[in-house]
Amino acid sequence: MIVREKSTPCEMCLSRKFSMFSNLSEPHLCNLSDNKNFISHKKGQILFYEGTKPLGVFCINDGVVKVFKTASNGKEQIIRLANKGEFLGYSSLLGEEVYSSTGTIVEDAKICFVPKETFLKVLVEDNSFHRRLTKALCQDLGIMEHKLTDATQKSIRERLAFTLLKLSETYGVDGGAGEKIDVVLTREEIAGLVGTATETIIRLLSEFKKDELINFEGKKIIVLNKKGLARLSDFYGG
Amino acid sequence: MIVREKSTPCEMCLSRKFSMFSNLSEPHLCNLSDNKNFISHKKGQILFYEGTKPLGVFCINDGVVKVFKTASNGKEQIIRLANKGEFLGYSSLLGEEVYSSTGTIVEDAKICFVPKETFLKVLVEDNSFHRRLTKALCQDLGIMEHKLTDATQKSIRERLAFTLLKLSETYGVDGGAGEKIDVVLTREEIAGLVGTATETIIRLLSEFKKDELINFEGKKIIVLNKKGLARLSDFYGG
DNA sequence: ATTTTAAAATGATTTTTGTCATGTTTTATT
DNA sequence: AATAAAACATGACAAAAATCATTTTAAAAT
């Protein structure tokens, strides 16, 4: 069930302040506020489906969204996890293509939908915004090149170690003996992130735990030994 | 040895007509012409190195360039092959990062170097160009997502079949019994394209030949049975 | 034309990873 | 609280792919 609530106007939105929309003009902000559509989403809900036509972009005010492609074998390859302050769907929209991936909620989320026309108006009228967006797209491309190279040239052990390090960078909070990855991901989702079978992830996580690189706390993972994971991940700067 | 020659002005450049620079204004074209730097490159030469700072963009007037990342195991993951009318290096330039990959000449090339300031001037002053570039970046991102998903979820046999189909799409010329892939790639380079070991590619190509899906003609590959390759590649629309 | 070097091919073997089957634990639902 | 359904775990095995060693062939270089 979709819940539409009274929402903060964009002008006051805190997550916006640290997003690509951070430096918009007063009129653009008002226009956004007037046309956006704020919706609360529960874990598991689907934001958009691969293969459908984008009608706008999503701004994450809070929560976590996984963006994945479904492979022909039925498995999910997670392209990225998107967080507060990030945008979704602009790439397919601006590429004038159908969604290349599906977006579903991983942690309960508050998300604003900005209709295509509203978004394009900002893009066309605010060149500085357009340039920020271009920069972000270019950096995303660099990240994807790196991911592709890792996927083909590194072992799954290395990739899992790297993934855990990245997760702890993004979601890390103090967790006593180490850094707690403060987001709930199933083994299947971690497998989708790394690009492998669930069983392989289960085995490797057990191995990492045995080697005291990580520990489990409920559904969350504690990173005990970053150096060890970095060594394992055959980290080369990326 | 770098050969600097007398070159066609951009206004007359045929490869430009089918590139992102196709609809530039007269003044912008003149400015490009005045500032570009035309260089002929021989097979094997390096255009730019991963990790170095981009100083401009490259426009391919003729030839083929492979863009690859070197993995920590020393192997090359080819990100893409770039052809006549395509641009190189703008992603790292606009992302304000060092080159994420290396570019080397695969087939003798004529390439214009456009200095950063000149390129940025066009980008800032011609919004329509900027939008075309954004669109291309977004589509490239979609392609990378697809490649990543293939890399993690498909077998090497499937990926090789897909790669051969794509190569014949781009480089295909009539070749008697089938379509000839009219570009010389070593087995090692095909391996870099697919993301696997050279020996694996050699074995699979032999298998494909035995199964009469392809044939060899000198250093080039003839695709005999596209349908068969498509079936093998487990094609899902991408 | 001969030597050197690089590329391609092939076999043997090991390692890695995926799959299937099954059991246990945890979480959600009635 | 009982039941059902996910999620997690583990073993056994099969398949895929990498590695290493060696040979053959083709292309460059002298």
Automatic annotation (TrEMBL), chains A, B:
InterPro entries in the cross-refs: cNMP-bd_dom, cNMP-bd_dom_sf, Env_Response_Regulators, HTH_CRP, RmlC-like_jellyroll, WH-like_DNA-bd_sf, WH_DNA-bd_sf
Residue intervals of the HTH crp-type domain: 154-227
Classification via Pfam families: cNMP_binding, HTH_Crp_2
Domain of life: Bacteria
Keywords: DNA-binding, Transcription, Transcription regulation
Domain Cyclic nucleotide-binding stretches: 20-140
PANTHER family: CRP FAMILY TRANSCRIPTIONAL REGULATORY PROTEIN, HTH-TYPE TRANSCRIPTIONAL REGULATOR ARCR
Name the UniProt record assigns to this protein: CRP/FNR family transcriptional regulator, anaerobic regulatory protein
